[in-house]
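Kindly review this protein for my students:
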Amino acid sequence: MKYIKISYNKKMKKIIVTTLLVSVLTCGCGLKGVSQSKTALQNPDQEEVVNENPIEQTNQGVNSGVNLGVNKEKDLASQKTEELKNDLENLHPIDKAKRDCVAKVYSTHDMNECGYKAMDSWFKEIDKYLGLLKTVTSEEEYSDILKAQEKWKEYQEAEFVAISIIINKQGTIYQTITLGEKEFIVKQRALALKNLYEYWIE
């Protein structure tokens, strides 16, 4: 009989705890409700202000979420604007000249002319920094730089041939794309030699 009584008590405890949990969860009180009830018991004279309008509560939550979203978008837009501004300020003079040239023309042919001018300018940058490197390096070191330049020239010519297959596609826009790819290759070499020179004289 004693064993049955203990088992019964454990069962009762489980039922009571389960009932309490269910009642707390279904009434929507949660810990906040328990806390408010506790405060009310401690201060019986204090009036409790409760917003009983669930639609208003929902609207407040939605508005709060919308405001957070709008503020986040404004921050991102501001950040992007700042990055774009910095990019424009840090443009290489050749890139600025090309941008200004393209802004003044309307036809694809004229845009391509701007691209050819830019590419010629990058080739001149290569010659410029090769000349500067000659003034700060030994004869042996400069010989190594020239060997590397010859290898790059072979690479550049092979790439130009490979890129030129784009021109076979219909539409003048593909000429512009091809030219842009070629210019990029020359620009990268010019900037690499510029960096090499600047590291050398530091």
Q: What stands out?
A: Residues 148 and 184 are 19 Å apart (CA to CA).
